[in-house]
Amino acid sequence: MKLANLQNLIFQFVVVKSVLVYPPPNPIKFPTSDQQTLINGDLLTDPLIVETVKHVESKVSPKILAIPPSTFIQDSTVTYNAPDPSAAGTCYWAVGQCLRSSDTSDFQADISICKNLNEWGVTYDDGPSTQVPGTKELLSELTSQKLLTTHFVVGTNVLLYPDLLKQIDAAGHQIGVHSWTHHPLTSLSNAQIVAEIKYTEGIIYKTIGKVPIYFRPPYGDVDDRVRAIISALGYKNVMWTIDSSDTSGIPNSEVTARMTKVFEGTNPDTNTSLTTGVITLEHDYLDNTVTSLAALNSYKTSSKLLKPQPVGQCQGLNSNQWYLNSDGSNPANKSGSTDPSKPNTSHSFKIQNILFIFTIIIVTFLF
Ligand SMILES: [Zn+2]
């Protein structure tokens, strides 16, 4: 056994595990609604953030938290600095769309597909928005088609348009967290990533009284460091199978054609039949979103159709399992742990105990 692995195992037991507080404590103040202003200064020394960073440090290996941040260039563009972004290294999504398919002691697996072939997890990012069309028009079309979907909302927009978030929630859709500033998270410090999530969680809780269990990173900009912080804060990282390309600048008709193919069970990128249930990426504030959604109504007579639904539903959760319970436990965790960030506690606890005993034997043998 390598010394680094041994140190990591000892770390897992020496550091006192802390538990996230529920309901989430109010911050002293929320960040501004300006997405160009990164969260810094006294917003990072708020007890809410300081205590949550301690929690993250008690759960995640130091080597994961030491993965170097990328360098922000502009919008979604960063220069990635960790030496190996492949799956063997830090699994940086933007390089080969790397995903983690199984849980580790540092993070939970990514969600990127629906469980069954005929299921379509529909997601809308970046809302709520007041553009026309925007959230209101999207909600109206979803209601007229009797569809429920998942909405990953941005903290600045919830701060500006709380009534729109209430409308999304009241209509029965699933709400997830999509950061405060919509900045690429790999370029931020550990404390800033915590702040992006906790302030957004806080404004969502203040608005609708619920804490979501799903998180989507802006631009899909995620690596193992970001993944581990998301997991330590109790969230599942939700990516996607197919990008609608609604932000790419292609004509609305092409976005509609792509989403129609998905609806009919074809991958629009490869023109081959889908082999898994899918999760699609769309955005709340674009006219092609509503246009492509409205087009689905004309195709409903086809026999080979996927069933659009919220991601939570296609992961086997009913609607009362999309948010933390009133005691702070995560209803999606089989063990019913009261620590929302700890999946399958009893199982992992047993494994950890076995590893601990093994570590003690090795240490005794060596010294
Ligand atoms: Zn986004």
UniProtKB/TrEMBL annotation:
Domain (NodB homology): residue spans on this chain: 118-316
Keyword Metal-binding found: yes
Single GO cellular component term: membrane
Gene Ontology BP annotations: carbohydrate metabolic process; fungal-type cell wall biogenesis
Keywords: Hydrolase, Metal-binding, Signal
Signal peptide: 1-18
GO molecular-function term, one example from the UniProt record: metal ion binding
Keyword Ribosomal protein carried by entry: no
Pfam families: Polysacc_deac_1
Domain of life of the source: Eukaryota
Region of interest called Disordered, as start-end residue ranges on this chain: 325-345
The name this protein goes by in its record: Chitin deacetylase
Annotated organism of origin: Clydaea vesicula
Encoding gene (name): CDA2_1
